[in-house]
Automatic annotation (TrEMBL):
Residues of the GGDEF domain: 228-361
Pfam families in the record: EAL, GGDEF, PAS_9
Keywords: Membrane, Transmembrane, Transmembrane helix
Annotated protein name in UniProt: Diguanylate cyclase
Top-rank lineage group of the source organism: Bacteria
Annotated transmembrane regions: 12-36, 42-64
Species of the source: Nitrogeniibacter mangrovi
Length: 635
């Protein structure tokens, strides 16, 4: 209790003391000055004393009356306030408890507290407040329940979420706390419902697209922290539309629900499955050590999905295609990973559905570089950076030029002149292959027209990719070039590696060319049954072998058996054979001695520009080396 004397009391006492002292000091002087004699002075002093007593008594009465009124008023107000607070405490809707500071023993509880915890407020007094707090119930682990929610227990054991507010007070001079407890189970249930609606897919109950970004961000951070892999998997059902069409939309919905449950059942704790919408799902597989682990889980998912689904008296069956991007191996951003997984999923569909396809960043980058190169090749054709050079194919017997082979060169503005071997392998199989084939045929035709005006008309070899899908357009261009030349003066060279992958293509190409009077050469023969088959059956008009790739190295004193076998077989079968890419003059006498009909390569002549071809054709390549030892060579 506050025992301090109010300030106004001190002020009154001090004022009274001052007036009294002044009166004592001054009043006798006044009496002596006013009174005419002693008797009169005695009488005035008596009156003065009585007057002083009456005045001070009057003052005292006034002060005490005022003080008394204040005290009375204060007491009434205090009692009224106490009654009001007690009514609030007693009848408030919130549970209120007064608990001792320290051991939290309940000193008083209101009616609402009695109802909240049961069985009544009196039963609460003396118990510890902390005893009511319990851990969250298992269903309280719902992600929609905010973290940090406090759970209390009723007398019957039921758990409920609460909000607690405390205020420090004194109670009979002792420190206590007033605790207000509010049951928030209603509000929380409402929040959980709203949260479910916002973050859950209504059909399957799975998390929805809104949740995916958060889950993915956390999963990526986890992978980074632990050094593990994260599989971001895009799953799309195969043939789902047919279920809707055959059994109705309701049945389709039921199938989606069952498939969602099956997917979830195959995942591990910590993994996530989200329904994006329609028949699309995203799976986040965490804590992976290797791709094989990811593949194992997804194989189980595929198997589970492929089991028949019972739909109201019917049985439906769907499969799924899954595309996987792996963090941090593939795209490093969340959006990029999803896009990569989506792209891989389309690859899984294209490859026949019901399968898994992994996105591979390295392959993808390589493909990108290849695409860029193809664009550059296209630009090079448009900007006349690609030209044809011509290399003679020379008869071993006569030393005359039998034909010239058109070889592409790229006058690259930065890298200088690039031979075909440096860029054509990228073009093969690509979308630009037909353009390059048509470009070669058109250039050769233009060069041929130039030569003809100069009075020469060499036999011509052109190299074509001749892809199956391009043949109809290609044949027209071949026909146009062949039409400018005498019959059999045009030879189309096709790489043996290309023909390996399309036997029926070679058949179509061969018959189309033969119908046009165009020869076809099988180029790039290294070894194997293709060349033997070609020579024995006579399907090709010419075989070109590269002795250097058959073991004929620099300084060789004899031909490798493989070269000799090809030469012998060509001779026996009566086929024309050209030994190409000859870089060493010392190989020429060996080939000549073995009966090689024709040769081509730097040891004979390098490729020359179109303008130099007429001079090349007049040249008589004279073989000077037969029997003359070191001076072997062509002049
Ligand atoms: N029952 C049902 N159908 C849906 C729902 N959302 C989308 N669809 C249908 O799901 C189908 C999905 O189309 P697609 O993925 O092309 O069907 P698909 O037969 O699986 O085709 P592929 O993926 O190429 O195998 C469409 O016909 C949509 O109308 C849904 O909530 N319930």
């Amino acid at each position: 209790m506050n025992a301090r004397v109010p300030g106004f009391v001190w002020r009154i006492v001090a004022g009274y003391a001052l007036v009294a002292v002044l009166w004592i000091l001054v009043s006798d002087e006044i009496v002596a000055w006013v009174a005419a004699d002693l008797a009169e002075a005695t009488w005035i002093s008596g009156v003065k004393g009585v007057g002083f007593v009456l005045v001070t008594a009057g003052l005292l009465y006034g002060v005490l009356r005022r003080f008394w009124r204040k005290v009375m008023l204060h007491g009434t107000r205090g009692r009224e306030a106490t009654a009001r607070y007690r009514a609030l405490f007693e009848h408030g809707n919130d549970a209120m408890l007064v608990i001792a500071e320290g051991d939290e023993r309940i000193l008083e509880a209101n009616r609402a507290a009695g109802l909240l915890y049961g069985p009544g407020k009196q039963a609460l007094v003396g118990r510890r407040f902390s005893d009511f707090q319990v851990a969250a119930p298992p269903e309280g682990g719902d992600e929609a329940v905010p973290a940090g929610t406090i759970w209390h227990r009723k007398a019957g054991g039921l758990r409920f979420p609460v909000e607690v507010a405390t205020t420090a007070l004194t109670w009979d001079g002792e420190p206590v706390r007033l605790v207000i407890v509010r049951d928030v189970s209603g509000a929380l249930a409402q929040k959980v419902t709203l949260d479910r609606l916002a973050h859950r897919d209504a059909l399957t109950g799975l998390p929805n697209r809104q949740v995916l970004a958060d889950h993915q961000r956390l999963a990526m951070a986890h992978a980074q922290r632990t050094g593990s892999l994260l599989g971001v998997c895009f799953l799309d059902l195969d043939g789902f539309k047919a279920v809707n069409d055959s059994f109705g939309h309701e049945a389709g919905d039921e199938l989606l629900r069952q498939i969602a449950r099956r997917i979830k059942a195959q995942l591990r704790a910590g993994d996530t499955v989200v329904r994006l919408g329609g028949d699309e799902f995203v799976l986040l597989l965490v804590d992976l050590d290797a791709l094989a682990e990811c593949e194992g889980i997804l194989m189980r998912v595929l198997t589970a999905i492929a089991q028949p689904v019972a739909l109201d008296g019917h049985q439906a069956r769907v499969t799924a295609s899954i595309g996987v991007a792996v963090y941090p191996n593939d795209g490093l951003g969340a959006d990029r990973l999803l896009r990569d997984a989506d792209e891989a999923m389309y690859r899984a569909k294209a490859a026949g559905k019901n399968r898994i396809a992994f996105f591979n960043a390295i392959l993808e980058r390589r493909a990108k570089v290849r695409e860029e190169l193809l664009d550059r090749v296209t630009r090079a054709m448009n900007e006349a950076q690609l030209t044809l050079h011509y290399q003679p194919i020379v008869s071993m017997g006569s030393g005359r030029v039998l034909a010239v082979e058109a070889l592409l060169r790229w006058a690259h503005p930065v890298l200088g002149v690039l031979p075909a071997s440096e860029f054509l392998p990228f073009v093969n199989d690509g979308r630009v292959a037909l353009d390059v084939d048509l470009f070669v045929l058109a250039c050769a035709r233009a060069d041929m027209a130039q030569w003809r005006t100069g009075g020469c008309e060499p036999a011509l070899h052109v190299n074509l990719f001749a892809h199956a899908s391009h043949l109809p357009r290609l044949v027209d261009a071949i026909a146009a070039l062949a039409g400018d030349l005498p019959a059999q003066a045009l030879t189309v060279e096709v790489d043996s590696a290309n023909l390996m992958h399309g036997a029926e293509v070679s058949g179509t190409l061969l018959s189309a060319c033969h119908a046009l009077g165009v020869r076809v050469a099988l180029d790039g023969v290294v070894a194997g049954s293709d060349s033997i088959h070609a020579m024995v059956t006579g399907t090709f008009d010419e075989i070109k072998i590269a002795p250097g790739l058959m073991g004929l190295g620099p300084g060789a004193s004899g031909l490798p058996p493989l070269v000799r076998a090809h030469l012998d077989l060509a001779a026996v079968a009566g086929r024309h054979l050209v030994a190409k890419e000859l870089g060493f003059p010392e190989h020429l006498p060996l080939l000549a001695a073995a009966g090689c009909p024709a040769v081509q390569g730097f040891a004979v002549s390098k490729p020359v520009a179109a303008a130099e071809v007429p001079a090349l054709l007049t040249r008589q390549f004279a073989w000077t080396g037969i029997g003359s030892g070191d001076s072997n060579g062509w002049i």
